Amino acid sequence: MNKSKGSIEAEISKALTQWEKDFLGRGSVSVKADILRDMIIVTLRGILTPAEYVLCETKEGMLSIKRMRSNLIESGMNGLKEIIFTITGEKVKSFHTDISTQSGERVMVFKLDRDIEKDFE
């Protein structure tokens, strides 16, 4: 890889922002990707709409929002994996995500087949 770690992280952040706009209809306020060993950890801020924050005031509403948002991401999984593969050349072995209904932040973790951070040392 002849690109810097920072430029690849920025490319992933930009691509995921575009994916959100195309697939979900709106993007988050900020997206930050970090490469750590065999993982790409992405933090997305400003995920929830004002209406979703109101729903999250009850436990039932919070669980409903988490479930719905999780289903939306899962349904776009192939697109997400394709983005990571296109930018890094690595296949995604597993994917994990959760959303905080308090902060409106989502964390995505893409586990890859190998430690790509070593490529930048």
TrEMBL record:
Name of the protein described by the UniProt record: Uncharacterized protein YbcI
Domain Na+-translocating membrane potential-generating system MpsC, residue spans: 5-114
Pfam families: MpsC (PF10057)
